[in-house]
Design goal:
EC 5.2.1.8; rotamase; Thrombin, subunit H
C-alpha cells in the first residue's frame, strides 16, 4: 500500500468509527417504548386513531369503553407503520415528530375492482342499508347501495387510498419486563390484565442412556433410564379477566401471543390463571333444592300439607276403570 493510500485510509478511519458509534445510540430495533400519537388523514384532517382523550372528544369520537393512554410498542416489530418505525430508531425519550404515510404504505390504494355487486340475499336483513359493515364470503366490506335484490358492496379498507399524517411523542423507554408484558398484552387485547414474573423451580424428567458394562457387544441396543432434575424457569403469570377470556384475538391466537411474549422477554413459559369467585348463598339454596328433588328429607311443612290431603286410592282406581269402559 502506498503512502498516499495509507493516508487516505487513516483519514477515513475516524469518520467510519464515528458513523458506527452514531448508529448504536438512541432507541434501537427491539426496544420497548411508550408512544403517544394521533393519526389523521392528510386530505381533510379526519382523526383516524389517537391516544389522547381530548383529541378524540374534539373530533366527536365515542370515548366510552376505550382506554386513552400512551401505548407500549416494540420498535421494528411492525406494531406501527414502517415509516414511524424508521423515525423511532436513533431517537430519544421525549422526542416528538410527524411522519407522512403514503396510502400504499398505510392501508393500500383504492381498488375499483373491490367494489362489487352481489345478491342482497347474502346480506343479513338487519344490515341491508347503505353504510352497514358486512362480511361476505370471509371478506369485510360496507354496503354502498341496495336496489331490488342487488347490493353494491365496497370491499376496500375504509382508509384505502388515504395518505396519513402520524404525529407522535416518545413518552419513555420501557425497561421493566412486567410493564413490557402488560403493554404487549394491552396492544393485542385492548386491555392489559394483571401480570407478574417469577422464577419457579420445576421438576423435569429426561431420558439418559445407561452406560453398558459389556463394551464388546457393539450390536446391543442402548438402555435408557428416566432421570428427574429440578430446573429454574422464568415464568410470566397472567391473571385472566372475563373480558380477556371472551376476546376474539385471545381465543384464536393465544399460542402466538404467548410465544411472542416468551421470545421478546426471554421467558421460559407463560401461565394464565383464572379466578372464579364463590356465588355466596346460591349454592346452599341449590343444595336444599337438590335434596328435595333427589328424595332427601322433605321440609316438615310439606309433609304436614301432604298429611292433610284426603285421598282414597280405591276411588281413584274405580274412576279410571270406568273411564276405560266409556272409551270402549
Amino acid at each position: 500500500m502506498s503512502e498516499d493510500q495509507q493516508a487516505e485510509t487513516a483519514d477515513d478511519a475516524p469518520e467510519d468509527a464515528s458513523e458506527e458509534s452514531e448508529e448504536v445510540t438512541g432507541i434501537q430495533d427491539g426496544d420497548f417504548v411508550k408512544l403517544a400519537y394521533t393519526v389523521r388523514t392528510v386530505e381533510d384532517g379526519t382523526v383516524v386513531d389517537t391516544t389522547s382523550k381530548e383529541v378524540a372528544e374534539d373530533a366527536e369520537i365515542d370515548t366510552e369503553d376505550y382506554d386513552f393512554s400512551p401505548r407500549i410498542i416494540v420498535v421494528g416489530a411492525g406494531h406501527v407503520f414502517e415509516g414511524v418505525d424508521d423515525a423511532l430508531v436513533g431517537a430519544e425519550a421525549g422526542d416528538t415528530g410527524t411522519v407522512d404515510i403514503p396510502a400504499e404504505e398505510a392501508f393500500g390504494e383504492f381498488d375499483p375492482d373491490d367494489v362489487r355487486t352481489i345478491s342482497a340475499e347474502k346480506i343479513d336483513e338487519d344490515d341491508r342499508y347503505p353504510g352497514a359493515r358486512v362480511q361476505i364470503d370471509g371478506e369485510q366490506g360496507h354496503v354502498e347501495t341496495i336496489i331490488g335484490g342487488r347490493a353494491r358492496v365496497d370491499f376496500n379498507h375504509p382508509l384505502a387510498g388515504e395518505d396519513l399524517e402520524y404525529e407522535y411523542e416518545i413518552v419513555e423507554v420501557v425497561d421493566d419486563r412486567e410493564e413490557q408484558a402488560a403493554g404487549l398484552l394491552g396492544m393485542y387485547l385492548q386491555q392489559a390484565p394483571e401480570v407478574w414474573i417469577e422464577t419457579d423451580e420445576v421438576e423435569e424428567e429426561s431420558q439418559v442412556e445407561v452406560e453398558s458394562d459389556d463394551d464388546d457387544d457393539e450390536d446391543a441396543e442402548p438402555e435408557f433410564e428416566t432421570v428427574t432434575e429440578t430446573v429454574e424457569k422464568e415464568t410470566l403469570y397472567i391473571e385472566a379477566t372475563p373480558q380477556m377470556t371472551m376476546n376474539q384475538q385471545w381465543m384464536f391466537q393465544k399460542q402466538q401471543i404467548a410465544q411472542d411474549l416468551m421470545d421478546r422477554l426471554d421467558l421460559d413459559r407463560v401461565i394464565v390463571q383464572e379466578t372464579i369467585d364463590g356465588m355466596g348463598g346460591m349454592m346452599g339454596g341449590m343444595g336444599g333444592m337438590m335434596g328435595g328433588m333427589g328424595g332427601g328429607g322433605a321440609p316438615a311443612d310439606v309433609e304436614e300439607a301432604l298429611d292433610d290431603v284426603d285421598v282414597d286410592a280405591d276411588e281413584i282406581v274405580e274412576e279410571l276403570e270406568e273411564g276405560d269402559l266409556d272409551e270402549q
